[in-house]
Amino acid sequence: MQQGTLMRKVKSKSWKKQRYFKLQDDCMTIWYQSKRTGKTESAFSISDVETVREGHQSEVLQSLAEEFPPERCFTIVFYGRRGNLDLIAGSAEEAQCWVQGLRQLIDPRSFALTFALLSLTWIRDWFQKADKNKDGRMNFKEVQHLLKMMNVDMNEDHALRLFQDADKSESGSLEGEEFVFFYKALTQREEVLSLFQEFSEDGKKLTLLELVDFLRQEQLEDEGTEEMAMELIDKYEPSETARARHVLSADGFLMYLCSPEGSIFNPQHRALWQDMNQPLCHYFISSSHNTYLIEDQICGQSSIEGYIRALKRGCRCLEVDCWDGPNGEPMVYHGHTFTSKIPFREVVSTLGKSSWGNSSSPPPLMGTSPPSSHPQREQVISVPASSCSTGALEDPRVLCPHIYRGTSLSPTPQELKHKILLKGKKIGRLEDTLDGPGDEMPNVSDDDNGAEAEEERRRAKVVLMDDAPIIQQGSALQKDKESLAQALSDCVIYCKNVSFRGFEEAHSHSRPSEISSLSEAKARKLIRDAGNEFVRHNAWQLTRIYPSGMRTDSSNYSPQEMWNVGCQIVALNFQTAGMEMDLCDGLFSQNGRCGYVLKPPFMRDEETLFNPSDPSSREGPSPITLTIQVISGQQLPKVANSKDGAIIDPLVRVEIHGVPADQAHQETKYIENNGFNPRWDETLQFQLHVPELALVRFVVEDYDKTSRNDFVGQFTLAFANIKPGYRHIHLLSKDGTGIPPSSLFVHIRITE
């Protein structure tokens, strides 16, 4: 991989150019040059790479599927809005070399190595930026310019003193190790050093027992602390001598605090940690609205990239709006609008390749019923049966005997793993599908909005079935139409659309295998008028919420109020960044990012008394107090499109999103002209009545006294995933991607 590889860089089916790619000696930078000219064209840092996809997992590579085998193709996906890099290697072996090498470098489990490499990369990058005349040295004037670039306004006398201390050769300029010394002095973490010395008897190292004391007293680790201390020393202590003596230096202590083990997010909750054997209605399910759109709802672009991004983000409920296209081929787009179109077959292919990722036990994928513009032309399109639940768990009498005992018609994510569930209209009941045809006619619509209902009436369905892809027209004969309608109906198993006519009607006539869709406005009215009934309803049946038709700009509503009453499928526009998607990412970043989060016990009880508007209705412990000391920030990014030399005035706002009584926010004072290493040392305190539903959002903003503050970074997580103690919060950008090395350092306490 480091020797360089000749690969094709692809931007379109007709744009394929050979480029020479090489991993630099720092193991953190990749550059590539033209084969024809030999000129270096571009470079990027490993820290900019979010993930690597193998095979034809992009719109461009899918268009080249017949020309190049998937074993030679891969896609580098970057953080932020930077475009993907589609590449075709000369052989499958070369492709694997790059894929595995890149994954190793971006793997958070390689944190110690990556942290050290990033430190060296940052030092080198800052030196190159500050060395204006490119003579390999940096004078004091260049140092002053460097400080402004690093987002810090430092007193000139203090800066000169640091410069002179680093200038060991007394040459009036810094080079090589002198600049490294200057950079380390500049980035000295006094607050971390003070904490280190508080537990270190000699102020130079932490013995094994001293580290154990710190883990127990401050980090509140209560099990296996001695083993954990040994592991931390082995993993993060850079000195071989110190590791051999089982002690941790100040550098090793800082690396631990910046590591996943030192994060505010409980690392044990990153993995699949919840019970996956509850009925589907007992889970919050990550859900998208009009998944194929990557822009607005009227003229925006439709792309399979929307499905790939949503699935990689953990989304488990997708929308596929399919309409009749040329020559009877179904096309996916937003009907009755000017959005672009993509072939349905490409969507199906993408779902087959991207649905399960690398998980060894993936949960099911749900899809809302795809429409078509002509009710007389129902089309059936198929994929392998192994991916589609077209029978009640294939053999329900063996795998799901409880269906026949009448105790439940809702299977579990564990039982449905590797399956695709179709949400749509159905003839008859689930029992009729299992035991024979029924005589109940399908509902006209499951939507309460008139315009949405009319559109549903015009829709026909595209279905995933067995064997190879086939297309059948349903308009030739009445017999064919009836056959296809029944075939379609039989594919809808556990998510039959039904109209919502009130909680009493649903309780009397609906079944757990059915689902209703509500607009955000209708849901809010029900929350306001019948909160407890809504919670009880969602304890036994699925409910889907979708955005208002007025949100043509693809804006989002807050999902929190819907989660507060237990709504499982809260569909959001994933392409639109903002607080709403921060909450979605924050909730579903746990449990292995599988897209399923188990609801708290009091929301799974059909007789619950809980009402989100009355926190006292929750049975359980008394309210808890969350105390957050915001200590410092590190290397905060500049505001986008800011003027040269501009330095941010950062403040931190902590928001609580939960039941109405818990909704709150507090913020620190702003620190003037310091985005590099601001110190706040301020304590914020919140009382949480229903902590099980609370999400905590940390937001950094650039204070502006004359206009609205500018966004700098954020991090959101469920309260249940917070680790107490001294923790780092690694900030994310507006669209939810990492912005290393930007972080906050906080101290967390949780008391009853």
Q: Can you offer a commentary on this structure?
A:
This protein is of the alpha+beta class and 752 residues long. The protein folds into five domains: 102 residues, Pleckstrin-homology domain (PH domain)/Phosphotyrosine-binding domain (PTB) (PH-domain like); 78 residues, Orthogonal Bundle (Recoverin, domain 1), CATH 1.10.238.10; 73 residues, EF-hand (Recoverin, domain 1); 283 residues, Phosphatidylinositol (PI) phosphodiesterase (TIM Barrel), CATH 3.20.20.190; 131 residues, C2 domain (Immunoglobulin-like), CATH 2.60.40.150. It contains 23 helices and 33 strands. The strands form eight sheets. A nine-stranded mixed sheet has the order 13-17-19-21-22-23-24-12-25. The chain has a seven-stranded antiparallel sheet with strand order 4-3-2-1-7-6-5, covered by helices on one side. The protein has a four-stranded antiparallel sheet with strand order 29-26-33-32, with no helix packed on it. Helix 3 crosses helix 4, helix 9 packs across helix 11 and helix 12 runs parallel beside helix 13.
Record the SSE blueprint.
Layout (H helix, E strand, L loop, with lengths): L4 E6 L5 E8 L5 E6 L5 E6 L3 E6 L4 H5 L9 E6 L6 E5 L2 H15 L4 H20 L7 E2 H10 L6 H11 L6 E2 L2 H10 L3 H10 L5 E2 L1 H10 L7 H12 L3 H5 L3 E2 H8 L25 E6 L15 H9 L4 E3 L2 E3 L5 E3 L9 E2 H11 L10 E4 L10 E2 L15 H4 L2 H4 L14 E5 L5 H6 L14 H8 L4 E2 L14 H14 L3 E3 L5 H7 L4 E6 H10 L1 H8 L3 E5 L13 H4 L5 E4 L6 H10 L7 E3 L25 E11 L15 E8 L6 E4 L11 E10 L6 E8 L7 E9 L6 E8 L5 E14 L1
Parallel strand pairs: 12-24, 13-17, 17-19, 18-20, 19-21, 21-22, 22-23, 23-24
Antiparallel strand pairs: 1-2, 1-7, 2-3, 3-4, 5-6, 6-7, 8-9, 10-11, 12-25, 14-15, 15-16, 26-29, 26-33, 27-28, 27-30, 30-31, 32-33
Helix pairs in contact: 3-4, 5-6, 8-9, 9-11, 12-13
